[in-house]
Structure formats: structure tokens, C-alpha cells
Amino acid sequence: MSWDCGLRYVFSMPPALQQGSKCIVHDKEDLSRLEMVQRLAKDGCRFLQNHSKSPERTAETQSDEAVRLSVRERGRDVLVLQRVSLEQPAHAAWLRGGGREEARTRRYAVVSGTPEKILEHLLSDMTLEDDRGTTQAKESDMLLDDFLLTYPVFMSTGDLCQALLGHYCTKRHRAKEDAKEALERKQKVLHLVWHWMSLCKGFLREDEHVKVFLKSLHRCVLDDLYEHPALERDVTELQKLYQLRRRHTVDDDSPHRNSRTLFHQLSVKENGLRPRSTQKESKEVLCRVYVTLDSYLSAKVRCEVVAQELLQEVAERIDVAASELILVAITYPGGRLLLQPQDRVFSNSLRPVGRLHVCRKDLSEVLNPFRDNSDMQQRTARMLNLNTWDVAVALTNFDWTIFNSMHEQELVYFTFNRNVCSSHTKSLELLLQRCNEVQLWVMTEVLLCPTLCKRVQLIKKFIKIAAHCKAQRNLNSFFSIIMGLNAAAVSRLSQTWEKIPGKFKKHFSELETVTDPSLNHKAYRDSFKKMKSPKIPFLPLVLKDITFIHEGNKTFHDNLVNFEKLHMIADMARFIRECQQDPVGNGIAQKSSSEVRAYIDYLHVIDNQQTLFELSHRLEPRA
Question: Cα separation of 579 and 310, whole Å?
């Protein structure tokens, strides 16, 4: 029988997928690409012979979108693949799965499936080092990246560890497997493990399942070393990886990006998965210390900070003697805990012991936001004396420290397990908190400025700072400042805005167009796309996009993982990775003066909207 005789395979599948679900086997390599599908679908396939003299012509009129292969096992679907063509540019962003190098134009993307079958298809399609750089390798890497970024959605880390160990050790369905095929299977599992450990290092650092898995895998590879000497290098690398995980001293660098985490700044620029020297860990968090009932000081401190150190920092910022102050934690409504000088402010989960308040020793408030006195004049004068470019640099450096520590997988945890896995979304939450605080800080500074002429100067200064943030590719602070100036409590100050020079009003109007939400923020998206990496996106809009994908698509179809949705989620995660990359040395961080840094690191904001409006009406009462 000739391989190009035009056999047409029609696979049994759900009614929604039956129409047009056909593919043509052109040669032996086409059949080998479906080897795994055929082996698993023994009870769900029907083979119909087509006697057409020109089967290829029929295939040309049928789009790849209509060709879906459904694998059934024990009477139910376990994997759905869709044929795609590498020649279709519209689908180049999501192509992945299936095929061999000799048949590049026929590949199969994962549409949905059970976690086990998706993993099996991933390992079957994976290419090893000899094939790196080929088209198949790139698409295989895309599937691998999709899977590793989104696996927490449909399986636990413990389940993935067991599945990988099973694929490495199992001899099921491989009675005729020769030594070369067995070695390739084992190397593929190890290849996946290297990528997994590299990509998700921050989240796997303390996971007990991973420790046990690496120990078991290391033992299995040692047992196979006599039969497969080619695994010797893998044994060495695995042993190093296991020892490093056990000692918690070193992180491995991702092959896709260089990550310097806020909590574990341990990595150096390197392309491979190689061990590196131990560096000192640095853990910093944002801390809110309330100085009145509705205003707080945002402070960046070490997580090991004790009450006395935090009190000293706050006292310097508000120009009050530390000896006159005490630090109180509100543990529950009506409950107060007086923190002793050596008490730790944060628990092991990096959460404060309660809502922190700085009070005088008689428990009275330290500041009064409505008091019009020399303190407010000094506050405004301090801000007006700061250089606008330096302020923008300090804001950008602060945001970049957090953003560059953010792992792309935090988006996945935030979207699907927001309440359960808060420890996995720390950097993302910090950046969102910072975005909100900068907006409130702009409003607070303007509304606490008692004189008209100085308010005008202050608004002009903030317009300049926003423009500088945009020039420094920090769209997070840029949006925050513009939104702070556009807030109702500030925008209603008509007498103040009338005094703003026309040149500044025009400049502000141009900056506002970038934040225009019409056409799904088209102006912002176009402007941001033209910027070189590294750059800081406006995080709330990123979360809006990923939430739209999440809410608009089901995660499971008939108990099968909707992998098309997870690919879109993974694309959003890769967007964060691309923004963090610095391929040609366009470094975003710059030097700023210590005075400006000290000011920006401790922002004093009023977070009560009613208080802000009361301040606004005190400055310019209603007509």
C-alpha cells in the first residue's frame, strides 16, 4: 500500500468538533507523528478509505482550523489536538505541538485534554539539544513554556512530580522500546525538569514535594547510569540542583530572563543552568504606618525590622522625636497591642502583626491634616525644592526594584488562586499597592498645600514628573500621577487650574491622551509598544486583560483542561518577561540623590476619600 494513497482518518470526537474533522496522511512520517494518538485511541477511531483520485486537492480546500483529532480512552475524550500550519502567519503566535522536522507544515496544537495526556504529548513532542534552533524546537519550547507557566491551574506540584517520576521510570507500553528510545525518553524528562526548576525557582524553593522528587529522581538517574552512560552529565547537574534546593542557598537562573527578586536577590547574568556562589539574601517589604486615623506613611523596610527601628525611621520622616512616640498594632476592632522596642513587626509570612499606628505616649494623634500651620508650609517647600528628574528617577528605581523581582507566574496565581496563594503574588501585590499610593500621594501633596501660588507650582512640578516617568519607560508611576491630578478632589480646584500656564495645560493634555481608555486603551498600547525593553507597564491594565481572558473562557470543557485559554494566559505572563528583559543594555535604573530617595521611600498619603474632599473644600469652598 502506498503511503500517499489518500487514506482519510476520521476520529470520534464530541459533536461540536465532528464537522470537518478530517486529516490526510501523506507519508510515513505523518503517521509517526500520530503514533501516540493512535496508540491511545484504540477504542475511539474509525478508518474510512477515500477513493478520490486527488486527495491532496481536497485537503487544500479544508482549513486547518477544521481538523481536530480527538483521542478517546475508556469511552471518554482525553486529548483534543488541532492541526495547524507553520505557513499561516496569523497563528504563528500560538503554534505548538506535534510533527517532525521533515514535515514542518503539519503540526498539532493542544486544544484540550487531561493533565496526564497533555504532559505525555508534551514529552512526546519535545526536542533535545541536537535539534535546538529548528522550527520544531521553537514550537516545542512554546508548548513547554505554556505548560510550566500554567500547570498550577490544573494540577498540584506534588501531582506533577509524581507524573514526571512515572514517565522517567515507567516501562508501560514500551515492551519494544530499544535503548536509544529509552535514553531519549529519560533525557526529555530531565530536560523538562531543568526548565521547570529554572522557570519556577521562586515558588519551588520551600516545597517539600520538590525536595522529595529531586531526591528520588537523582536516585533513579544513578541507577540508570550503568545502562546509559550518556546520563553522566545529567547526574552531576541533578546532584548540584538537589543539594542547592536542600540547603536553600542558591537560585538557578532562567534561560529566558535574568531575575533579581526583591526577596531573594541571588542570581547573576548567565545563560545556562549552572550553580553559582551564595549571596546574602535581602528581603524588603512595604509597610504602612498610620500617623492619623486616615493617613499613613508608606515605608520600605526589611522584613526583620523591629519596632524601635521602624519608629526611628518614621520619627525622622515626620520630624518628631522618637522618644515621644510609641508603636501600636490594632489586632482586631477595639484591640490594641503596644509593641516593645525589640518586637518584630512582621510575621514569617511577611504580614504585619496588625494595622500599625504611631501615637504619642498619651495615645493622641501625631499629625492633624486639617491644621494650617508652619508644618504644612515646610512640607510644601521641601517638595518644591526637589528636582523633578531626580524624583522621577527615584520613583522609577523604586518601581523597577519590585517589578524586576516579579515572577511572570505571579499573574497565574493572582488570577486563579488570589486568596489561597498570596505568598506567591507578593511582588505583584506590592506593585499594585505602590501604584495606588503614588496616586494618593499626589492628591495629598496638592491638597495639603495651603497657598494658591504654591499649589500652582506643585501641579506644574507633578506634570513634569509624569513626563519624566514616561521618558524613563515607567508607565506605572506615569499613570498614577496623571490619575492623581485628574482625581475629583484635585480637578475641582478651578481657581488653581486657572493659574496653570497654557504651556503646561497643553503638555498635561498631551499626557492625558496616553491614559485615554477609549478603544481599549489604544493610545497607551501603541505608545508602550514603541518603547524599548526594559519597561514598566501599567499593571492594573495587565490584570484587566488577563481577567478578561479568564472570565471570558472556561477553564475546563467536559472535564478537559481548556489549553487554548491557558496559552492566552501564558502569553500574558510572557509579556511581563519581555518587559523585564534588557537585551541591548537599555537599563532602566539610574542614580538619584539620597535626599530624594529618602523622600520617595517614605510617602505620606491620606487614604480616606472623605478627608481628601474635606481638604479640597477647605482650600476652595463651593461657590
Answer: 34
614 pLDDT more than 90: yes
Contact 145, 564 (CB under 8 A): no
374-619: same fold as 284-360? no
Write out the H or E segment, with its range, that includes residue 602: strand 602-606
Its pTM surpasses 0.85: no
Residues found in the chain: 623
Place of cell 478578561: 548
Enter the CATH code of domain 284-360. 3.10.20.90
Q: Given CA atoms 562, 564, 569, 573 in this order, what sign does their dihedral have?
A: positive
Residues sharing a CB contact under 8 Å with residue 412, sequence separation 6 or more, in sequence order: 149, 150, 152, 153, 569, 573
Cα–Cα distance list, 296 to 5, 157, 317, 366, 605 (Å): 77, 39, 12, 11, 6
Tell me the pLDDT of the chain averaged across its residues: 78
Closest CA to 346 of 312, 290, 311, 301: 301
Q: Grid coordinates in use for 363? A: 495615645
Task: Please give the class, per CATH, of domain 374-619.
Answer: mainly alpha
CA distance linking residue 314 with residue 366, whole number of Å: 11
Residue 16 has pLDDT above 60, yes or no: no
- Count of other CB atoms within 10 angstroms of residue 378: 11
Helix, strand or coil, per DSSP, at residue 83:
strand
Q: Are 444 and 295 in contact (CB under 8 A)?
A: yes
Q: In the block, which residue shows the cell 540623590?
A: 593
Gyration radius of the chain's alpha carbons: 29
Which grid cell is 235? 547526574
Distance between CA atoms of residues 114 and 559, nearest Å: 8
SS3 readout for 249-264: CCCCCCCCCCCCCCCC
Compute the average pLDDT of residues 420-425: 68
What was the pLDDT predicted at 456? Answer: 96
Angle at 20 between CA 17 and CA 24, to 5 degrees: 115
Query: What is the domain partition of the chain in residue ranges?
Result: 284-360, 374-619
**3-class state of residue 284 by DSSP:** strand
By DSSP bridging, strand 23-24 and strand 8-11 are antiparallel
- The SS3 of residue 173 is coil
Helix axes 452-471, 388-405, angle to 10 degrees: 50
**3-state SS, one letter per residue, for 32-79:** HHCHHHHHHCCCCEEEECCCCCCHHHHHHCCCHHHCEEEEEECCEEEE
Q: Are the C-beta atoms of residues 587 and 388 closer than 8 Å to each other? A: no
β-pair partners for 297: 289, 604
Find the distance separating the first CA and the last CA of the chain, reported in whole Å.
Answer: 93
**d(C-alpha 296, C-alpha 298), whole Å:** 6
